[in-house]
């Protein structure tokens, strides 16, 4: 005889029976039905709705328990939300509890954008989730910290059910430090035809913004360095013909925001080279109290351990912990990667005390220098992992580098900074230390990313230097280009005279690295963008890391305007949209050109342009992540605009 599900009690009993039969390890609470009912903001629905919930649960939930574990807990509530939508829209306060999320063995988790497009009732099993074209994988560590505030189930119309997850944007995390780099000005070519800058392959500014947005925070305009957003994307440049240099390409396209101007892209693709030189790696680990926030220690420990495991027998690694001072008992001088003392030191990283970055780097540089003297043929890296919140001794990056400075340019120590954390984070310190310490800067937002960034394949590529002290100089043809403006690179633009000098703060590029720069240019009247044009020339200079030899390349900057539509390479269009969006947004709250209203209008246009790229690029994680970011940026810019500009009505 079929059970009667017309009462709350019998339905709760049936659910508990399924728990007991299908997953003995999962304990159903005695108030299970009440817990489910509490997910809704209105009184209980009719029994037929409850029966639909149980039918769906028996079909989708319980058969997966044997293999899917606690996936069921989230699945049944997703089905409940869908079932409730048979009438008026229902609002679910939380899909799953934090306790359940910690146990979910999802291989992939559907993000906010995908949920909007996927019927809720289909996202119930592990197998289905694997097949969903996810916009970005949200990792388990992140999920533990995210409370899903609301998921709205729209009325069923026979089509996909719309749902939206994630908290609304709020102010930036507290105690974060960024530098307000004012945007580069427009320059008349008649006054100055030369643009000189250090190349850049960092992408931390973009990764920080993406992490913030995924955590429900507003993107801080001062955190946006347009060149790092541009260089976060792969434009699929062809490799150079010769292994000793770069492939330098240039393009001219219509400006999507200003019909009087054009965009010029110049790309520099380094050659892939093999380097079997051994490595000397010095890990400098922040063990201060601020590292206790969130999962910072877990991330730093995972990155350090992944580096240790990626090293070869011929490599050496040392470890330094610092708080108010260095922790001598945890200091390990350069040893083989499989040394128990190295593993033990990394595993004992724990937060306490204040933050003396200077003391940690001083000892790290000292140990690295000693290893360099013993092994002069090795490449040398000092890797600082920290939230950057220095509060003991020197707290300024240049003051810190005064005592932790490497003065041997012939066989340099390369300072890599790895940032962790969201709140209480100092981007300025970490970015400047890397830039002036002959290294690069990365941001890690979870342990999975730490392990991927420093996997053996990635780490060996990143630790193979191809070009040191790399800089470029563009000289515009004053008969063709009326004015020009470099997008981003505010803290990497340098004097024209410095181009002839080998200077440490110029960028080091690893093997196979690509660097991109965009310019806004205005052509002289009478110059036809549709013709094949020579706009000027670009020269690139660098130092070969292992020999100290200076090299240079020079090519013409050319291009032909094919508009900004389907005739243009979609990766070129994507880069232009990224460059302009980051550039305009970074000007808030002052606003670029037309003020905040102008920024809002520009970002709305760029959203349309990005939407036109969905067909060729919509399958890429990078495209979907940026679409999500641009949506958040447009929302922020809209709120910054004056109310009268948002009304659409006349006075």
Summarize the structure.
The protein has 651 residues and is an alpha/beta fold. The protein has 23 helices and 20 strands. It has three domains: 8-153, no CATH class; 177-273 and 466-643, Immunoglobulin-like, CATH 2.60.40; 279-463, Rossmann fold (3-Layer(aba) Sandwich).
Query: Mind telling me the C-alpha Rg?
Result: 28 Å
Question: How would you sum up the global shape?
Answer: globular
Q: Architecture of the largest domain, according to CATH? A: Sandwich
Return the average pLDDT rounded to an integer. Answer: 78
Strand order of the largest sheet: 10-9-8-11-12-14
Largest sheet, strands/sense/barrel? 6 strands, mixed
Which structural traits does this protein have?
about 650 residues, alpha/beta, Immunoglobulin-like, Rossmann fold, 3 domains, six-stranded mixed beta sheet, five-stranded antiparallel beta sheet, about 35% helix, disordered N terminus
Description:
- This protein is of the alpha/beta class and 651 residues long.
- It has three domains: 8-153, no CATH class; 177-273 and 466-643, Gamma-adaptin ear (GAE) domain (Immunoglobulin-like), CATH 2.60.40.1230; 279-463, von Willebrand factor, type A domain (Rossmann fold, 3-Layer(aba) Sandwich), CATH 3.40.50.410.
- It has 23 helices and 20 strands.
- A six-stranded mixed beta sheet has the order 10-9-8-11-12-14, with helices on both faces. Strands 4-16-18-7-6 form a five-stranded antiparallel beta sheet, covered by helices on one side. Strands 5, 15, 17, 19 and 20 form a five-stranded antiparallel beta sheet that branches.
- α1 packs parallel to α3, α12 runs antiparallel to α13 and α19 (570-585) runs antiparallel to α20.
- The longest helix is centred in the last third of the chain and has 20 residues, at 621-640.
- The N and C termini lie far apart (72 Å).
- Mean pLDDT is 78; it is low at 1-6 and 39-167.
């Amino acid at each position: 005889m079929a059970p009667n599900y017309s009462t709350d009690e019998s339905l709760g009993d049936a659910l508990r029976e399924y728990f007991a039969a299908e997953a003995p390890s999962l304990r159903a609470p005695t108030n299970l039905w009440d817990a489910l009912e509490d997910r809704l903001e209105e009184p209980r629905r009719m029994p037929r709705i409850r029966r639909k919930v149980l039918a769906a649960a028996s079909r989708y939930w319980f058969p997966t328990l044997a293999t899917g574990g606690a996936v069921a807990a989230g699945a049944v509530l997703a089905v409940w939300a869908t079932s409730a939508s048979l009438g008026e829209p229902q609002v679910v306060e939380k899909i799953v509890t934090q306790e359940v999320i910690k146990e979910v063995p999802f291989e992939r988790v559907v993000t906010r954008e995908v949920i909007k497009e996927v019927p809720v009732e289909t996202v119930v099993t592990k197998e289905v989730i694997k097949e969903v074209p996810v916009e970005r994988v949200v990792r388990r560590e992140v999920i533990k910290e995210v409370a899903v505030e609301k998921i709205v189930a729209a009325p069923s119309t026979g089509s996909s059910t719309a749902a939206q997850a994630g908290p609304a944007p709020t102010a930036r995390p507290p105690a974060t430090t960024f530098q307000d780099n004012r945007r580069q000005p427009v320059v008349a070519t008649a006054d100055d035809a030369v643009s000189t800058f250090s190349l850049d392959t960092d992408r931390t500014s973009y990764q920080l913004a993406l992490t913030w947005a995924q955590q429900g925070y507003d993107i801080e305009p001062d955190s946006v360095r347009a060149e790092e957003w541009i260089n976060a994307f792969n434009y699929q440049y062809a490799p150079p013909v010769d292994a000793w240099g770069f492939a330098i390409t240039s393009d001219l396209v219509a400006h999507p925001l200003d019909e009087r101007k054009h965009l010029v892209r110049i790309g520099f693709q380094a050659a892939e080279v093999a380097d079997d030189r051994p490595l000397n790696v010095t890990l400098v680990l922040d063990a201060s109290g601020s590292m206790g926030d969130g999962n910072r220690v877990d991330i730093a420990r995972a990155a350090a351990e992944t580096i240790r495991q990626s090293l070869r027998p011929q490599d050496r690694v040392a470890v330094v912990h610092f708080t108010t001072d260095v922790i001598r008992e945890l200091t390990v001088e350069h040893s083989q990667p499989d040394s128990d003392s190295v593993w033990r030191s990394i595993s004992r990283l724990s937060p306490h005390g204040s933050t003396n970055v200077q003391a940690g780097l001083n000892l790290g540089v000292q140990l690295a220098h000693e290893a360099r003297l013993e092994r002069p043929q090795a490449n040398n890296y000092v890797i600082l992992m920290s939230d950057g919140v220095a509060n003991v001794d020197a707290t300024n990056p240049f003051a810190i580098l005064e005592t932790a400075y490497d003065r041997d340019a012939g066989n340099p120590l390369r300072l890599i900074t790895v940032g962790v954390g969201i709140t209480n984070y100092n981007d300025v310190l970490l970015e400047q230390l890397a830039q002036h310490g002959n290294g690069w800067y990365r941001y890690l937002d979870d342990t999975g990313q730490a392990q991927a960034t420093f996997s053996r394949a990635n780490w060996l590529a990143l630790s193979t230097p191809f070009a040191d002290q790399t800089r470029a100089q563009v000289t515009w043809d004053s008969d063709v280009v009326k004015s020009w403006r470099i997008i981003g690179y505010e803290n990497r633009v340098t004097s024209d005279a410095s181009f002839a000098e080998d200077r440490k703060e110029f960028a080091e590029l690893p093997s196979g690295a690509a660097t991109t720069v965009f310019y806004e240019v205005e052509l002289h009247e009478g110059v036809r963008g549709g013709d094949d044009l020579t706009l000027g020339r670009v020269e690139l200079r660098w130092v070969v890391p292992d020999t100290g030899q200076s090299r240079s390349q020079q090519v013409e900057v050319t291009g032909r305007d094919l508009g900004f539509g389907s005739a243009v390479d979609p990766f070129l269009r994507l880069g232009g949209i990224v460059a302009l969006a980051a550039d305009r947004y970074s000007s808030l709250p002052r606003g670029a050109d037309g003020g905040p209203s102008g920024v809002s209008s520009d970002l709305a246009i760029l959203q349309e342009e990005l939407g036109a790229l969905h067909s060729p690029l919509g399958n890429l994680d990078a495209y979907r992540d940026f679409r999500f970011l641009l949506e958040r940026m447009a929302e922020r810019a809209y709120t910054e605009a004056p109310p009268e500009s948002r009304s659409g009505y006349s006075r």
